[in-house]
Amino acid sequence: MNKKGFIFDLDGVIVDTAKYHFLAWKKLANDLGIDFSETQNEELKGVSRVKSLEKILQWGNTSVSEEQFAALMKKKNTDYLTYVNTMTEDEILADVPKILHYLKEEKQPFALGSASKNARTILEKVALIKDFKSIVDGTNVSKAKPDPEVFLIAAKELNIVPEDCIVFEDSVAGIQAANAANMISIGIGKKETLKEADYIFKDFTEISTAFIKQLIKN
Ligand code: BG6
Ligand code: MG
């Protein structure tokens, strides 16, 4: 039987933590007197914590000392974790369990490929940590998306060649990373934003098991 490697981003794909990242970054930016819009937030999706803060400071034409930068990073994460700590299984996005269940039934290996250093904490909170064959996150990579590193490591850990891997992503940077890794990219979100993806769906309710079956067969 054909085996494909399925790789899931976390934030905005499995759980809607993208909204918590937004709230925490907005508070931090506004406290510094910097405006922060939803459009700008789109540019931060999939982007590492360090790069995100650099971008916000750049947008606000603000520079800070190294110590201040470290303190701001810590502040953002502390604030973000207050949201994360309230999370339960209820926050798993609709029909994600349906797809994970189907992959298990079909004996298709799947991994997590996330930029977040909080990935394991979140997966524990929503009780999915045991389901993934491999978890590659912000603590395992040196190059942030759009670099393909995170997905290439995940493919290696799944023991599947990149060309046979399928990536689910909600961010532009993540779709670019999947494409750069020569994987099939599936965008979860808006067509206008994720146009570089091979396939785009609003969310997992639009993804049928028949579609997944086709991906496995091809
Ligand atoms: C990505 C998010 O998954 O992880 C980004 O889309 C976030 O918004 C990045 O900045 C890093 O996450 P964390 O949890 O380590 O700050
Ligand atoms: Mg994401």
Tag the structure with descriptive keywords:
globular, binds magnesium ion, binds 6-O-phosphono-beta-D-glucopyranose, alpha/beta
Q: Would you mind describing this structure in some detail?
A:
It is a single chain. 44% of the residues lie in helices and 11% in strands. With 218 residues, it is an alpha/beta fold. Strands 3-2-1-4-5-6 form a six-stranded parallel sheet, covered by helices on one side. Helix 6 links the parallel strand 2 and strand 3. Helix 1 (18-31) packs across helix 4 (66-84). The relative contact order is 0.18. The mean pLDDT is 96.
Any chance you could write out the topology, listing elements then pairs?
Layout: E1 5-8, H1 18-31, H2 38-44, H3 49-59, H4 66-84, H5 96-105, E2 110-113, H6 119-125, E3 134-136, H7 149-158, E4 165-169, H8 172-180, E5 184-188, E6 199-201, H9 209-217
Parallel strand pairs: 1-2, 1-4, 2-3, 4-5, 5-6
Helix pairs in contact: 1-4
Question: What's the short story on this structure?
Answer:
By secondary structure, this protein is α/β, with parallel strands linked by helices.
Order of helices and strands, N to C?
EHHHHHEHEHEHEEH
From the alpha carbons, calculate the radius of gyration and give it in angstroms. Answer: 17 Å
SS elements, strand count? 6
Low-pLDDT segments:
none
- Overall morphology: globular
The structure class reads: alpha/beta
